[in-house]
Structures are given as structure tokens and as C-alpha cells.
């Protein structure tokens, strides 16, 4: 993370949102896409990303598939049906949370 830990509690939501938009992604691709979308503000480290990916996979929220690209194995992650439902629910909760924060900080 860059600057502070504000993003830390939202990494799971960010990962699920990236996967719903992109359909399949590998870990490094997720870190780069998040960095790109936030103009460099969010720098996910492997140490933060992979434990969440493993937990999501163990919980049946995502699944992975290894594909060979240019002679190298690459592990892609996908949302399961359970994961798609969870992503919708978590996004609604996040939007409500952000709305409430905005209300508080505009005082």
C-alpha cells in the first residue's frame, strides 16, 4: 500500500470488483490494474494480495486455472457463482458505506 492503510480493509472488495469487470485475471495483473485505476495511489503488494486470493478460493468465492502463456504457466482467477453474488452484495454495502462517509466529511 502506498501512503496509508485505508485500502487494506477493502482489498477483498477491490479484487472481486476487478474480477467481475475483467472476468479472469492473474495476480500481477490485478496489482497493475488497481494501480492504473487509482493513478498509482493503490499499490497492492503480493504479501497483501495472495493471502486474500487463497482465502477467497478456499471459501469458494473464486477459482483458479493454470494456463500456459508464452511458455510460462500463469494462474488465472475467476469468480464462482457464489462469488458473483457476494460481489454484488459487497458492492452495495461499500456504496452505502462511502455515501455515509461522504455525508460525515461534508459537515
Automatic annotation (TrEMBL):
Highest taxon of the lineage: Bacteria
Domain Transcription regulator PadR N-terminal: 15-86
InterPro entries: Metal_resp_DNA-bind_regulator, Tscrpt_reg_PadR_N, WH-like_DNA-bd_sf, WH_DNA-bd_sf
Transmembrane regions listed in the UniProt entry: none
Signal peptide: none
Cited PANTHER family: PADR-FAMILY TRANSCRIPTIONAL REGULATOR, TRANSCRIPTIONAL REGULATOR RV3488
Protein name: Helix-turn-helix transcriptional regulator
Source organism of this protein record: Kaistella gelatinilytica
Lineage: Bacteria, Pseudomonadati, Bacteroidota, Flavobacteriia, Flavobacteriales
Amino acid at each position: 500500500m502506498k501512503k496509508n492503510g485505508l485500502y487494506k480493509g477493502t482489498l477483498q472488495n477491490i479484487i472481486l470488483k476487478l474480477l467481475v469487470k475483467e472476468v479472469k485475471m492473474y495476480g500481477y495483473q490485478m496489482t497493475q490494474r488497481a494501480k492504473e485505476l487509482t493513478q498509482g495511489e493503490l499499490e497492492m503488494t503480493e504479501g497483501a494480495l495472495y493471502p486474500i486470493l487463497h482465502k477467497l478460493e478456499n471459501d469458494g468465492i473464486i477459482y483458479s486455472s493454470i494456463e500456459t502463456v508464452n511458455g510460462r504457466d500463469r494462474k488465472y482467477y475467476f469468480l464462482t457463482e457464489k462469488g458473483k453474488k457476494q460481489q454484488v452484495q459487497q458492492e452495495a454495502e461499500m456504496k452505502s458505506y462511502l455515501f455515509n462517509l461522504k455525508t460525515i466529511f461534508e459537515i
